[in-house]
Amino acid sequence: MRLLSVSRVSQSRTRSSFLTIRAQTSRTFSQLHSNPERSSFGIAFDIDGVILRGRTPIGGSPQALKRLYSECGTMKIPFLFLTNGGGVPESKRAIELSELLDVNILPLQHLSFMSLMQVVQGHYPFKTLVAGYENKLIVAIGKGEPAEVMSDYGFKKVLSMDEYASYFDNIDPLAQYKIWEAKTTFREDRSLLPRYDVLSERVQAAFIVSDPVDWSRDIQVLCDILTSGGLPGQANRHQPPLYFAADDLEYQAAFPSMRLGMGAFRIALEAIFSEIHPLPLEYTSYGKPNSFVFKNAEAILKQLQQLSCDEHDVLHNGDAVNHSFRTLYMIGDNPSVDIKGAQQARSPWLSILTRTGVFRGEINDPEFPADLVVDDVEEAVDYIFRRESTLGNQ
C-alpha cells in the first residue's frame, strides 16, 4: 500500500528518580493485566531526529507518546524505541528517556514469566554472540560505556578502547597533543585492572558499540589489532572478527546539519586498512535496516501486547495467546535506514517518514519512499489513531 504525503492538521502541542520509575513500572505491569482489550497494532519509534534532537524533545514527542497510555498511566498501545544509537545499557537509556519525555519507559525487568523492554539499541544483537566470546578477550569501542554494555550482555573479558590502549606505551603517537582528560582512572586504581595479561593475550574480536570519540587513536589501535591477529606490535596474521552495531553514514543530532555516524567511521577505517594490509577489511554490521532487527522488534512488541491480556490466561496457561498484529508502524527520519528496513521486513510493517531529521523533502524520498510522509511524530501518531479507528469500524 502506498499513501500520499499529508499536510499538518493541527499545531496543538520532572525529572523522575530511579526509584520512582521502578515503582511506576510495577504499577503499570499490574494495571495492564486488567485491560481486557488487546491492541491490533504496535509502533516502533526511531529516537534521534524523531523523538529527540540531542537531549531536547522535538515534534511534539511527549504529547504523542502520552496518547499511547490510558488516563491512569497504563500502556494501552504497545510501542518501543528502535534506534541504531547506543553506548549505554538499555535499562539506563530507558530511565533517561523516561525523564526527558515524562512518560514511563520500561527498562529491562525480569518478572515472573517474561522480560520487558521498550528500548532496542543498535548493539542489542551483540547478545547473540556471547556464546562465542563469553570468556575471550574482546575490545569495545565507542562513546558512553561500551565495556559496561558488553558486560551486561554477558561478555566476561571485555575492555574499553580507553582501557586497552592505556596498556601499550606510545601506541597513540598523538596522545600528548590531546587536551581532554579521560574520565576513568583504571591505571591508578589497581582493583580495576583485569585479571589477565593484556600485553600477551590476543584480542579475539573487536566491537564498535557506539560512535567512536577519538577517531585517530581508535583507527590506529584497531589497525594494530586487526593486522597483527589481535596483539599490537606483532607480525601480520589473520584478522580477528570485527563487528559494528550499526552502519549509519549520517544522523540528526543537536547541530542543524547532519553529523557523521558509525558508517562514516567504518568507511574511514576500511579505506586505511586496505592501504596497509594485503587483504580487504572483513566486518559484520548490525542495526537497521537489517530485517532481523525488525523481526526482533516485532517479537518484543508481541510481548508488550500480551500485557493487555487477561491475567487468568497468563497465570494458568503459562503464556498469553499469541495474537498477530494487523499493522506495525515504523516512524523514522532516515529513508535509507528506517524506511528501507520497514520495507524489507514487509507485512505487517508500514513506514512513516518525518521531516524532523535526516529527511527534509517536500514529497517523499525517491529511493526509499515511505508509505506516509508527515511533518513530525505527533502528526504520525495522530494519523495512526485515525487509521486504526477507521479499520476497527470496518
TrEMBL record:
GO cellular component: mitochondrion
InterPro entries assigned: CDP-alcohol_PTase-I, HAD-like_sf, HAD-SF_hydro_IIA, HAD-SF_hydro_IIA_CECR5, HAD_sf
Pfam family, one: Hydrolase_6
UniProt-listed GO biological process terms: glycerophospholipid biosynthetic process
Lineage: superkingdom: Eukaryota
Protein name listed in UniProt: Uncharacterized protein
Species this protein is from: Kingdonia uniflora
Biological classification of the source: Eukaryota, Viridiplantae, Streptophyta, Embryophyta, Tracheophyta
